[in-house]
């Protein structure tokens, strides 16, 4: 069992664990952001470089530092490895550069985009990006493509993370979509706009970290922060039927899978659950979904103190005690 | 705990003869009132006379159009989420082919309503707007005797297309861009 130190926190992890996974085992601020890595999809990761970390000591046997930042999602830990993420200013600067590159061709049309509010690129650029773009040239442009009748592809927003391609590869049989061309002009496409016709193809909407793949049944219906997310389930023959409903006034606007802290789905859901079951009566609603209070989605959602599990009397006592001490 | 040193201890000493007579104090009060007859009046007789507004006065909202007469608003919802009074609601719609001259972006607000009874004219909607679409103008919102009619829709908010009827917001735009 190798021992690794990430941002001065030591943790023992199983053999073959990557630095990113080890950081996620620690959790909190230590975890580097990831745009392309998806723990539930095999061979994902290694494309976007946002998860780069500084390795100041390769291992106990060979303590030399690694010559340049490494992609933590693809680098397995060694015994005695010392990794820096938030504690290395030069690394954070390098990550800012990576984010700037990701944003070079991104249209930044967040006011129109349906993903705004739950977009990983939005969060990433908010934390690591410049307020203004330095890029002066024409951004690449593509026409919008319908992938099947339920999914819309805005290729201009794509950052080529390959997650959707992995979904098509690993969840759907006989995949009909992938990446065409190369370099600046490469694009996600179905061959001659073949419809992706598979029960689980809708999951590519959820894995997409940006607004490149969006749900056509939810297109421009509402902004995410005006909807109320609910946990719900139903008996489904194809999937486990555990979903998140995005509701407004007792109306189901959108159905997605349940995403965890890192924006990854807890389980894949089928297209029938996602696109066709838009009645409240189709679902057994478990209750409101817990949304991080820093997220814009939690704006204007009032929670009772009992739900928040805050003991007011305890806080009052602490405040009074502090007041007494000041005197 | 003492926050400032301005607190005064109340002294209850006995009044002198002059104080007990009351007349000097009353005359002093009358003199102050008399002095005000010759002062400059602080009130004006509105609406015959109107005061000059500061360029950053926050009044009636306007939804701006661009130079080509297309609506700037894309119904992104940031004004509604920024609004502390929760006065703004909107419904988005997709622009159809042929409507390119009416709306600037592929999404637009088909319904945009501000509840003027709730609005506190704080200007946060204007600050949140990424498209320079909503501004508060120097126009005063008319008062009314009934609650009806205070929910302003697009008919009252969007500025006219005609160039001579456009709403001038240059004063606020300057402050907006500085931020």
Name the descriptors.
A: 327 residues; Ubiquitin-like (UB roll); Alpha-Beta Plaits; 3 domains; globular; B: 179 residues; alpha+beta; three-stranded antiparallel beta sheet; 6 helices
Spell the H/E element sequence of chain A.
EEHEEEHHEEHEEHEEEEHEHH
Q: What is the first-to-last residue Cα distance of chain A? A: 53 Å
Shape of chain B: elongated
Strand order of the largest sheet of chain B: 2-3-5
Radius of gyration of chain B, rounded?
Answer: 26 Å
Structural class of chain B: alpha+beta
Q: Specify the structural class of chain A.
A: alpha+beta
What is the count of distinct domains of chain A?
A: 3
Count of helices of chain B?
Answer: 6
Would you mind describing this structure in some detail?
The complex is a heterodimer of chains A (327) and B (179). Chain A has helices at residues 19-26, 89-103, 120-128, 163-170, 203-207, 271-276, 305-308, 312-326, and strands spanning 3-6, 9-12, 52-57, 70-71, 81-84, 145-147, 151-153, 177-180, 187-190, 213-215, 228-233, 242-248, 251-256, 284-288. Chain A is α+β, with helices and mostly antiparallel strands and 327 residues long. Chain A has three domains: 3-100, Ubiquitin-like (UB roll) (Roll), CATH 3.10.20; 120-131 and 141-218, 2-Layer Sandwich (Alpha-Beta Plaits), CATH 3.30.70.20; 224-305, no CATH class. Chain A has a five-stranded mixed sheet, sandwiched between helices. In chain A, strands 13-12-11-14 form a four-stranded antiparallel sheet. Chain A has a three-stranded antiparallel sheet with strand order 6-7-10. The longest helix of chain A has 15 residues, at 89-103. Chain A is globular, with a radius of gyration of 22 Å. Chain A starts with a strand and ends with a helix. By secondary structure, chain B is of the alpha+beta class. Chain B has a domain at 61-178: Alpha-Beta Plaits, CATH 3.30.70. Helix content of chain B is 23%, strand content 13%. Chain B has helices at residues 17-21, 23-36, 78-82, 124-128, 154-157, 170-178; strands at residues 61-63, 88-94, 107-115, 134-136, 151-152. The chains are: A alpha+beta (327), B alpha+beta (179). The A-B interface holds A 109-112, 116, 219-223, 225-226, 296, 299-300, 326-327 and B 1, 74-78, 80-81, 86, 92-94, 105-107, 130-131.
């Amino acid at each position: 069992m190798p021992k690794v130190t990430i941002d001065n926190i030591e943790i023992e992890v199983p053999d073959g664990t990557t630095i990113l996974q080890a950081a996620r085992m620690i959790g909190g601020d230590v975890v580097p952001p990831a745009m392309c890595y998806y723990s539930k999809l095999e061979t994902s990761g290694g494309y976007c470089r946002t998860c780069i970390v500084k390795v100041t000591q390769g291992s106990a046997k060979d303590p030399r530092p690694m010559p340049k930042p490494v992609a933590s999602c693809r680098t397995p830990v060694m015994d005695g490895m010392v990794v820096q993420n938030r504690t290395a200013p030069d690394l954070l600067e390098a990550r800012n550069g990576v984010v700037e590159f990701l944003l070079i061709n991104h249209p930044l049309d967040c006011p129109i985009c349906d993903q705004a509010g739950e977009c990983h690129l939005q969060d990433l650029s908010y934390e690591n990006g410049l307020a203004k773009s330095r890029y002066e040239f024409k951004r690449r442009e593509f026409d919008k493509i319908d992938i099947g009748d339920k999914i819309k592809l805005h290729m201009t927003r794509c950052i080529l993370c390959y997650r959707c391609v992995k979904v098509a590869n690993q969840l759907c049989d006989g995949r009909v979509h992938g990446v065409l061309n190369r370099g600046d002009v490469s694009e996600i496409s179905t061959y001659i706009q073949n419809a992706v016709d598979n029960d689980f193809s809708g999951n590519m909407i959820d894995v997409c970290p940006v607004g490149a793949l969006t749900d056509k049944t939810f297109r421009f219906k509402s902004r995410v922060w005006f909807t109320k997310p609910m946990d719900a389930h139903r008996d489904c023959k194809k999937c486990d039927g555990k979903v998140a409903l995005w509701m407004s006034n007792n109306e189901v606007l959108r159905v997605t899978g349940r995403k965890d802290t890192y924006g990854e789905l807890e389980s894949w859901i089928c297209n029938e659950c996602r696109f066709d079951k838009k009645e409240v009566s189709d679902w057994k609603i478990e209750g409101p979904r817990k949304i991080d209070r820093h997220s814009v989605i939690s704006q204007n959602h009032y929670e009772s103190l009992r739900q928040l599990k805050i003991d007011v009397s305890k806080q009052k006592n602490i405040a009074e005690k502090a007041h007494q001490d000041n005197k | 705990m003492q926050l400032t040193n301005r607190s005064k201890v109340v002294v209850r000493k006995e009044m002198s003869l002059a104080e007990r007579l009351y007349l000097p104090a009353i005359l002093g009060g009358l003199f102050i009132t008399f002095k005000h007859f010759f002062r400059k009046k602080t009130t004006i007789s509105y609406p015959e006379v109107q005061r000059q507004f500061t360029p950053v006065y926050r009044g009636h909202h306007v939804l701006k159009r661009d130079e080509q007469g297309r609506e700037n608003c894309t119904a992104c919802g940031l004004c509604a989420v920024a609004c502390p009074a929760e006065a703004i609601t909107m419904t988005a719609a997709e622009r159809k082919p042929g409507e390119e001259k009416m709306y600037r972006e592929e999404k637009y607000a088909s319904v945009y309503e501000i509840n003027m009874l709730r609005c506190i004219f704080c200007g946060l909607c204007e600050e949140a707007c990424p498209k320079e679409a909503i501004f508060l103008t120097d126009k005063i919102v008319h008062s009314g005797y009934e609650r009806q009619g205070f929910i302003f829709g697009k008919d009252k908010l969007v500025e006219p297309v005609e160039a001579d009827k456009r709403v001038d917001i240059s004063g606020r735009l300057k402050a907006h861009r500085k931020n």
